Amino acid sequence: ARPRVWVSQPLFGDIIAGLDEHFEVDDTREVTAWSPAQVARKLADADGALVTLNERVGAAEIADAPRLRAVANVGVGYDNLDVAALRARDIVATNTPDVLTETTADMGFALLMAAARRITEGERWLRDGRWTQWSFDTLLGHDVHSTTLGILGMGRIGQGIARRGALGFGMRVLYHNRSRLPDRIERNSRAAWVDLDTLLRAADHLVLVLPYSAATRHLIDAAALAKMKPTATLTNIARGGLVDEDALADALSAGRLAAAALDVFEGEPAVNPRLLALRNVVLTPHVGSASLATRRAMATLAVDNLVAALGRGPRAGDPPTPIAATATGATTAK
Ligand code: GLV
Ligand code: GLV
Question: Which InterPro entries does the record cross-reference, listed alphabetically (predicted)?
């Protein structure tokens, strides 16, 4: 019998069709909020699964999945997977790095600029009919060019943001990462390593691009925010749980931080009501990699990974994109 694969969310039909020639495909036509028990049931008779950040796959979900051999995550972050539990069962886990790097770096920069120059706040103000006359001091923001860009987590996306800042906007770029990058990469990114404390104190614009784990949960807490300049902005395009959102709301409402831009939230899709109530925060619904071309490339890579991991198709002998090899995992632990 052909191997069975489960596809947890609707992706692009023409790309998912690439699985049909190798597998019996159990696909999902509507966006679905699967419970852990439902995930476990879907995995119970699957040889492979193509999942998204919505689906947690850990020890409990694979306990009754004797045939499962591969889990392909559509996304670069994989905190939804318990990689150790999968590895203990010899289940291959893959993700989709590289194909989304530049698109996500674009979004990080867009959010940084929106926060610094109060772009979405200004749009809301205009749409609310409050623009009655041009005035000299309306919506004064903070400069981006020639300021200090701080990057926390210097994987591929962090390096892309660094290049944009240095080459496009004349910024001085500082980064912090658990391990310092090789000279060649520092030169290409025009970035200098500093310790976390220095990064927090020096950055005019801080961007979070590091993996989320138990070690990085609430890395940006009240103490970290207190070190930042009151004129600084904070942008998060990684995972919501990196930031203590209540502490962030405190800092933003007290004027201890100028603005924030958040694409990710700890309880998403729920957003902390205190953040929703603030003017000086830009909010987007986890769309960092959401260009049409990049989402197509991510789906294609995830399909290729699953095909390769299950030993089918032209890439049967090639390695898929195993998480162990691609994890620049790069980054800071507290
Ligand atoms: C999305 O957040 C991803 O990790 O690719
Ligand atoms: C994650 O490792 C990235 O690509 O930044």
Answer: D-isomer_2-hydroxyacid_DH, D-isomer_2_OHA_DH_cat_dom, D-isomer_DH_CS1, D-isomer_DH_NAD-bd, NAD(P)-bd_dom_sf
Write down the pTM of the prediction: 0.93
Q: Which residue has 């260009």 as its token pair?
A: 291
pLDDT for 169-189, tens place per residue?
999 999 999 999 999 999 999
Residue 121 domain flag: yes
Ligand 2 pocket test target in 102, 154, 157 with most atoms within 8 Å of CB: 157
Pocket of ligand 2 (CB under 6 A): 76, 97, 101, 155-158, 209, 328, 330
- Spatial separation of the C-alpha atoms in residues 75 and 216, rounded to whole Å: 19
User: Domain residues for 248?
Assistant: 101-283
268 a catalytic residue: yes
ipTM > 0.95 for the complex: no
Is 286 annotated as catalytic? yes
Q: Does residue 70 sit in the same domain as residue 123? A: no
> Whose CA is closest to 158, among 94, 231, 112, 105?
105
Q: Give the 3-state secondary structure percentages of the chain, helix then strand then coil, rounded to 5.
A: 35, 15, 50
Walk along the chain (334 residues) in steps of 10 and give the mean pLDDT of each run. 96 95 96 98 98 98 98 98 97 98 98 98 98 96 98 98 98 96 95 98 98 97 98 98 98 98 98 98 98 98 96 67 49 28
The catalytic position among 142, 201, 268, 312 is 268
130 and 277: one domain?
Answer: yes
- Residues 92, 120, single domain; the answer is no
Give the domain CATH number at 122: 3.40.50.720
